[in-house]
Protein backbone atom coordinates (compact mmCIF):
# COMPACT_ATOMS: atom_id res chain seq x y z
CA UNK A 1 0.00 0.00 0.00
CA UNK A 2 1.34 3.41 -0.96
CA UNK A 3 -0.18 6.62 0.38
CA UNK A 4 0.74 10.17 -0.62
CA UNK A 5 -0.19 12.84 1.92
CA UNK A 6 -2.36 15.69 0.61
CA UNK A 7 -4.18 18.62 2.25
CA UNK A 8 -7.47 16.85 1.62
CA UNK A 9 -6.11 13.82 3.44
CA UNK A 10 -4.99 16.08 6.27
CA UNK A 11 -8.49 17.49 6.70
CA UNK A 12 -9.94 13.98 6.65
CA UNK A 13 -7.40 12.87 9.24
CA UNK A 14 -8.18 15.89 11.40
CA UNK A 15 -11.74 14.60 11.48
CA UNK A 16 -10.42 11.13 12.26
CA UNK A 17 -8.43 12.57 15.15
CA UNK A 18 -11.61 14.05 16.57
CA UNK A 19 -13.38 10.71 16.16
CA UNK A 20 -10.55 8.90 17.95
CA UNK A 21 -10.66 11.46 20.74
CA UNK A 22 -14.41 10.93 21.19
CA UNK A 23 -14.10 7.16 21.01
CA UNK A 24 -11.49 6.86 23.72
CA UNK A 25 -12.42 9.94 25.80
CA UNK A 26 -9.01 11.61 25.31
CA UNK A 27 -7.22 11.67 28.63
CA UNK A 28 -4.67 13.86 30.25
CA UNK A 29 -1.22 12.32 30.03
CA UNK A 30 0.96 11.33 32.95
CA UNK A 31 4.73 11.22 32.69
CA UNK A 32 7.53 9.75 34.77
CA UNK A 33 11.26 9.44 34.30
CA UNK A 34 12.91 6.04 34.67
CA UNK A 35 16.35 4.49 35.05
CA UNK A 36 16.78 0.90 33.89
CA UNK A 37 19.62 -1.39 34.93
CA UNK A 38 21.94 -2.01 31.97
CA UNK A 39 24.35 -4.55 33.40
CA UNK A 40 27.94 -3.30 33.60
CA UNK A 41 27.05 -0.09 31.76
CA UNK A 42 25.42 3.11 32.96
CA UNK A 43 21.66 2.68 33.55
CA UNK A 44 19.41 3.52 30.62
CA UNK A 45 17.59 6.83 31.04
CA UNK A 46 14.04 7.06 29.79
CA UNK A 47 10.49 8.21 30.23
CA UNK A 48 6.95 6.83 30.28
CA UNK A 49 3.79 8.55 29.06
CA UNK A 50 0.44 7.11 30.11
CA UNK A 51 -3.27 7.95 30.46
CA UNK A 52 -4.19 9.69 33.71
CA UNK A 53 -7.22 11.33 35.28
CA UNK A 54 -5.19 14.37 36.30
CA UNK A 55 -6.70 17.68 35.16
CA UNK A 56 -4.09 20.32 35.93
CA UNK A 57 -0.40 21.20 35.85
CA UNK A 58 2.07 20.44 33.07
CA UNK A 59 5.55 19.11 32.54
CA UNK A 60 7.69 21.96 31.22
CA UNK A 61 6.27 23.23 27.94
CA UNK A 62 4.13 20.14 27.31
CA UNK A 63 0.51 21.27 27.88
CA UNK A 64 -1.69 18.56 29.35
CA UNK A 65 1.19 16.41 30.62
CA UNK A 66 1.20 15.80 34.36
CA UNK A 67 4.32 14.55 36.12
CA UNK A 68 3.99 11.46 38.34
CA UNK A 69 0.20 11.40 38.15
CA UNK A 70 -1.81 8.22 38.87
CA UNK A 71 -2.28 5.80 35.97
CA UNK A 72 -5.79 5.40 34.56
CA UNK A 73 -6.94 2.24 32.79
CA UNK A 74 -6.46 -1.50 32.70
CA UNK A 75 -5.14 -4.02 30.16
CA UNK A 76 -3.54 -1.16 28.24
CA UNK A 77 -1.36 -1.74 25.16
CA UNK A 78 2.31 -0.78 25.34
CA UNK A 79 4.30 1.07 22.67
CA UNK A 80 8.08 1.43 22.92
CA UNK A 81 9.88 4.20 21.01
CA UNK A 82 13.37 4.13 19.49
CA UNK A 83 14.89 7.51 18.61
CA UNK A 84 17.21 8.35 15.73
CA UNK A 85 21.00 8.57 15.85
CA UNK A 86 22.18 11.16 18.38
CA UNK A 87 18.63 11.69 19.66
CA UNK A 88 16.93 11.27 23.02
CA UNK A 89 13.97 9.49 24.56
CA UNK A 90 11.99 12.75 24.32
CA UNK A 91 12.63 13.05 20.59
CA UNK A 92 9.11 11.96 19.62
CA UNK A 93 7.22 13.40 22.56
CA UNK A 94 4.28 14.53 20.44
CA UNK A 95 3.70 11.02 19.11
CA UNK A 96 4.07 9.62 22.63
CA UNK A 97 1.49 12.09 23.95
CA UNK A 98 -0.95 11.34 21.11
CA UNK A 99 -0.69 7.61 21.81
CA UNK A 100 -1.12 8.09 25.57
CA UNK A 101 -4.18 10.28 24.96
CA UNK A 102 -5.61 7.41 22.92
CA UNK A 103 -5.15 4.94 25.77
CA UNK A 104 -1.66 3.51 25.17
CA UNK A 105 1.26 3.39 27.58
CA UNK A 106 4.41 4.64 25.83
CA UNK A 107 8.00 4.13 26.96
CA UNK A 108 11.31 5.31 25.49
CA UNK A 109 14.98 5.30 26.45
CA UNK A 110 18.17 7.05 25.41
CA UNK A 111 20.09 4.48 23.37
CA UNK A 112 23.40 4.22 25.19
CA UNK A 113 26.28 4.79 22.75
CA UNK A 114 24.05 6.44 20.16
CA UNK A 115 22.27 9.39 21.76
CA UNK A 116 22.71 13.13 22.23
CA UNK A 117 25.19 12.54 25.07
CA UNK A 118 27.51 10.27 23.09
CA UNK A 119 27.68 8.47 19.73
CA UNK A 120 30.87 6.48 20.25
CA UNK A 121 29.11 3.15 19.53
CA UNK A 122 26.81 4.26 16.72
CA UNK A 123 28.06 1.52 14.36
CA UNK A 124 27.46 -1.20 16.94
CA UNK A 125 23.90 -1.29 15.70
CA UNK A 126 23.05 -4.55 17.44
CA UNK A 127 23.15 -2.72 20.80
CA UNK A 128 19.92 -0.87 20.00
CA UNK A 129 17.51 -3.84 19.61
CA UNK A 130 18.99 -5.35 22.76
CA UNK A 131 18.30 -2.13 24.66
CA UNK A 132 14.75 -2.04 23.30
CA UNK A 133 14.32 -5.63 24.51
CA UNK A 134 15.54 -4.53 27.94
CA UNK A 135 12.99 -1.69 27.96
CA UNK A 136 10.09 -4.05 27.20
CA UNK A 137 11.23 -6.47 29.90
CA UNK A 138 11.38 -3.61 32.39
CA UNK A 139 7.92 -2.35 31.49
CA UNK A 140 6.28 -5.78 31.66
CA UNK A 141 8.24 -7.12 34.61
CA UNK A 142 9.52 -4.30 36.84
CA UNK A 143 7.62 -1.07 36.21
CA UNK A 144 5.68 -0.12 39.33
CA UNK A 145 2.40 0.05 37.33
CA UNK A 146 3.00 -3.07 35.21
CA UNK A 147 -0.33 -4.56 36.40
CA UNK A 148 -2.20 -2.27 33.97
CA UNK A 149 -0.36 -3.53 30.87
CA UNK A 150 -1.61 -6.17 28.45
CA UNK A 151 1.42 -8.36 27.73
CA UNK A 152 -0.12 -9.51 24.45
CA UNK A 153 -0.43 -5.98 23.06
CA UNK A 154 3.07 -4.58 22.50
CA UNK A 155 4.11 -2.39 19.58
CA UNK A 156 7.22 -0.42 18.63
CA UNK A 157 7.89 2.86 16.83
CA UNK A 158 11.27 3.94 15.47
CA UNK A 159 12.75 6.80 13.45
CA UNK A 160 15.93 6.61 11.34
CA UNK A 161 18.36 4.46 13.36
CA UNK A 162 15.30 3.70 15.46
CA UNK A 163 13.46 2.52 12.35
CA UNK A 164 16.33 0.10 11.74
CA UNK A 165 16.06 -0.95 15.39
CA UNK A 166 12.39 -1.87 15.25
CA UNK A 167 12.86 -3.78 11.99
CA UNK A 168 15.44 -5.94 13.75
CA UNK A 169 13.13 -6.30 16.75
CA UNK A 170 10.42 -7.49 14.33
CA UNK A 171 12.69 -10.29 13.10
CA UNK A 172 14.94 -8.60 10.55
CA UNK A 173 18.60 -9.59 10.17
CA UNK A 174 20.76 -7.03 8.33
CA UNK A 175 24.04 -7.61 6.55
CA UNK A 176 26.35 -4.80 7.62
CA UNK A 177 29.01 -5.81 5.09
CA UNK A 178 26.74 -4.12 2.51
CA UNK A 179 27.74 -0.72 3.92
CA UNK A 180 31.16 -0.90 2.26
CA UNK A 181 29.75 -1.71 -1.17
CA UNK A 182 27.06 0.95 -0.76
CA UNK A 183 29.62 3.64 0.01
CA UNK A 184 31.85 2.60 -2.86
CA UNK A 185 28.88 3.14 -5.19
CA UNK A 186 27.58 6.28 -3.46
CA UNK A 187 30.53 8.16 -2.05
CA UNK A 188 28.57 11.42 -1.89
CA UNK A 189 25.69 10.09 0.22
CA UNK A 190 25.45 11.46 3.76
CA UNK A 191 26.22 8.18 5.54
CA UNK A 192 29.42 7.72 3.57
CA UNK A 193 30.69 11.30 3.83
CA UNK A 194 29.95 11.30 7.59
CA UNK A 195 31.97 8.12 8.05
CA UNK A 196 34.92 9.54 6.15
CA UNK A 197 34.79 12.75 8.23
CA UNK A 198 34.95 10.54 11.33
CA UNK A 199 38.06 8.85 9.95
CA UNK A 200 36.25 5.57 9.15
CA UNK A 201 36.92 3.80 5.87
CA UNK A 202 33.58 2.25 4.80
CA UNK A 203 35.51 -0.42 2.89
CA UNK A 204 37.15 -1.62 6.11
CA UNK A 205 34.58 -1.09 8.82
CA UNK A 206 35.66 -1.69 12.42
CA UNK A 207 32.58 -3.85 13.04
CA UNK A 208 32.78 -7.16 14.85
CA UNK A 209 29.28 -8.46 15.41
CA UNK A 210 28.77 -10.72 18.43
CA UNK A 211 27.40 -14.17 17.70
CA UNK A 212 23.94 -13.28 19.03
CA UNK A 213 23.98 -9.81 17.50
CA UNK A 214 20.47 -9.46 16.17
CA UNK A 215 17.83 -9.79 18.88
CA UNK A 216 14.24 -10.06 17.75
CA UNK A 217 11.41 -9.75 20.25
CA UNK A 218 8.36 -11.95 19.73
CA UNK A 219 6.43 -9.83 22.23
CA UNK A 220 6.22 -7.07 19.59
CA UNK A 221 3.10 -7.50 17.47
CA UNK A 222 3.27 -4.43 15.18
CA UNK A 223 5.81 -1.74 14.29
CA UNK A 224 6.00 1.70 12.70
CA UNK A 225 9.29 2.59 10.98
CA UNK A 226 9.76 6.21 9.89
CA UNK A 227 12.71 6.77 7.52
CA UNK A 228 14.48 3.56 8.63
CA UNK A 229 18.26 3.87 8.40
CA UNK A 230 20.51 1.26 6.74
CA UNK A 231 17.55 -0.05 4.74
CA UNK A 232 19.90 -1.34 2.02
CA UNK A 233 21.43 -3.81 4.51
CA UNK A 234 18.24 -5.87 4.44
CA UNK A 235 17.24 -8.29 1.68
CA UNK A 236 14.42 -10.80 1.32
CA UNK A 237 16.32 -13.42 3.28
CA UNK A 238 17.09 -10.94 6.04
CA UNK A 239 13.45 -9.88 6.37
CA UNK A 240 11.78 -13.26 5.84
CA UNK A 241 10.85 -13.47 9.54
CA UNK A 242 9.49 -9.92 9.78
CA UNK A 243 5.88 -10.93 9.21
CA UNK A 244 4.01 -8.79 11.74
CA UNK A 245 2.02 -5.71 10.60
CA UNK A 246 4.43 -2.92 9.57
CA UNK A 247 3.79 0.72 8.72
CA UNK A 248 6.60 2.49 6.82
CA UNK A 249 6.99 6.24 6.26
CA UNK A 250 9.22 7.94 3.68
CA UNK A 251 9.93 11.64 3.27
CA UNK A 252 9.89 12.24 -0.48
CA UNK A 253 12.71 14.83 -0.32
CA UNK A 254 14.89 12.88 2.10
CA UNK A 255 18.41 13.85 1.01
CA UNK A 256 19.91 12.26 4.12
CA UNK A 257 18.60 8.81 3.15
CA UNK A 258 17.91 9.01 -0.60
CA UNK A 259 15.49 6.70 -2.35
CA UNK A 260 15.50 3.87 -3.40
CA UNK A 261 18.12 2.65 -0.94
CA UNK A 262 16.27 2.89 2.36
CA UNK A 263 12.48 2.66 2.72
CA UNK A 264 12.01 1.34 -0.81
CA UNK A 265 14.62 -1.36 -0.21
CA UNK A 266 12.84 -2.48 2.94
CA UNK A 267 9.42 -2.42 1.29
CA UNK A 268 10.68 -4.53 -1.61
CA UNK A 269 12.28 -7.10 0.72
CA UNK A 270 9.31 -7.63 3.05
CA UNK A 271 7.31 -10.78 2.28
CA UNK A 272 4.16 -9.20 3.77
CA UNK A 273 3.41 -5.83 2.11
CA UNK A 274 3.56 -3.00 4.66
CA UNK A 275 1.25 -0.04 5.01
CA UNK A 276 3.33 2.53 3.14
CA UNK A 277 3.20 6.33 3.25
CA UNK A 278 5.18 8.87 1.22
CA UNK A 279 5.14 12.49 2.43
CA UNK A 280 5.55 15.08 -0.37
CA UNK A 281 7.97 17.96 0.26
CA UNK A 282 9.12 16.46 3.57
CA UNK A 283 12.76 16.02 4.50
CA UNK A 284 14.37 13.46 6.77
CA UNK A 285 14.05 15.46 9.98
CA UNK A 286 10.43 16.42 9.41
CA UNK A 287 9.56 13.24 11.28
CA UNK A 288 10.81 15.04 14.40
CA UNK A 289 8.22 17.34 16.03
CA UNK A 290 8.35 21.11 15.47
CA UNK A 291 11.24 22.68 17.39
CA UNK A 292 10.93 25.36 20.04
CA UNK A 293 13.02 28.52 19.63
CA UNK A 294 15.85 27.26 21.80
CA UNK A 295 16.28 24.00 19.88
CA UNK A 296 15.82 25.74 16.52
CA UNK A 297 18.71 28.07 17.36
CA UNK A 298 20.93 25.23 18.60
CA UNK A 299 20.12 22.63 15.92
CA UNK A 300 18.90 24.36 12.74
CA UNK A 301 19.87 21.32 10.66
CA UNK A 302 17.15 19.19 12.27
CA UNK A 303 14.61 21.98 12.79
CA UNK A 304 14.44 23.52 9.32
CA UNK A 305 11.80 22.41 6.81
CA UNK A 306 11.44 23.20 3.12
CA UNK A 307 9.64 26.42 2.26
CA UNK A 308 5.90 25.81 2.34
CA UNK A 309 6.09 22.58 4.32
CA UNK A 310 4.07 22.85 7.54
CA UNK A 311 5.69 20.45 9.98
CA UNK A 312 3.07 21.05 12.68
CA UNK A 313 0.20 20.25 10.29
CA UNK A 314 2.00 17.15 9.07
CA UNK A 315 2.53 15.90 12.63
CA UNK A 316 -1.15 16.34 13.41
CA UNK A 317 -1.86 13.91 10.56
CA UNK A 318 1.14 11.66 11.16
CA UNK A 319 0.20 11.06 14.79
CA UNK A 320 -3.39 10.23 13.84
CA UNK A 321 -2.15 7.65 11.32
CA UNK A 322 0.24 6.09 13.84
CA UNK A 323 -2.51 5.89 16.48
CA UNK A 324 -4.93 4.36 13.96
CA UNK A 325 -2.37 1.75 12.90
CA UNK A 326 -1.62 0.60 16.43
CA UNK A 327 -5.31 0.63 17.36
CA UNK A 328 -6.10 -1.55 14.35
CA UNK A 329 -3.41 -4.14 15.14
CA UNK A 330 -3.21 -4.08 18.95
CA UNK A 331 -6.65 -3.02 20.15
CA UNK A 332 -9.51 -3.54 17.68
Written account of the structure:
It is a single chain. The chain has ten helices and ten strands. The protein is of the alpha/beta class and 332 residues long. The protein has a ten-stranded mixed beta sheet with strand order 1-10-9-8-7-5-6-3-2-4, sandwiched between helices. The longest helix has 21 residues, at 311-331. The radius of gyration is 19 Å and the shape is globular.
Provide a brief overview of the structure:
The protein has ten helices and ten strands.
Keywords:
single chain; 332 residues; alpha/beta; ten-stranded mixed sheet; 10 strands; globular
> Between the first and last Cα atoms, what is the distance in angstroms?
20 Å
Main beta sheet: 10 strands, mixed
On the 0-100 scale, what is the average pLDDT? Answer: 89
The proportion of strand residues reads 15-25%
Q: What's the gyration radius in Å?
A: 19 Å
Q: Which structural category do the helix and sheet elements fall into?
A: alpha/beta
Task: Give the strand order of the largest sheet, numbering strands 1, 2, ... along the chain.
Answer: 1-10-9-8-7-5-6-3-2-4
Order of helices and strands: EHEEEEHEHEHHHEEHEHHH
The total of beta strands comes to: 10
Helix content: 25-40%
- Tell me the overall shape: globular
* Unreliable stretches: 1-25, 56-61
- Put simply, the count of helices is 10
Amino acid sequence: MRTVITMTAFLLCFGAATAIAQAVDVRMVGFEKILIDNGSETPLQGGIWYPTSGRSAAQGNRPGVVSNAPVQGDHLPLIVLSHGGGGSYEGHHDTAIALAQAGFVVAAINHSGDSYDGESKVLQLWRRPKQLHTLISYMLGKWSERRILDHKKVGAFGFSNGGFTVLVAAGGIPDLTRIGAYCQAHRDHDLCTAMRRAGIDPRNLPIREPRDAWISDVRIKAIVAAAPAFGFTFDKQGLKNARIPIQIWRAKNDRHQPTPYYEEAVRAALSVPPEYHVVPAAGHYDFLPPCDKRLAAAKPEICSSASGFDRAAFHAEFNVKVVEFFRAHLVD
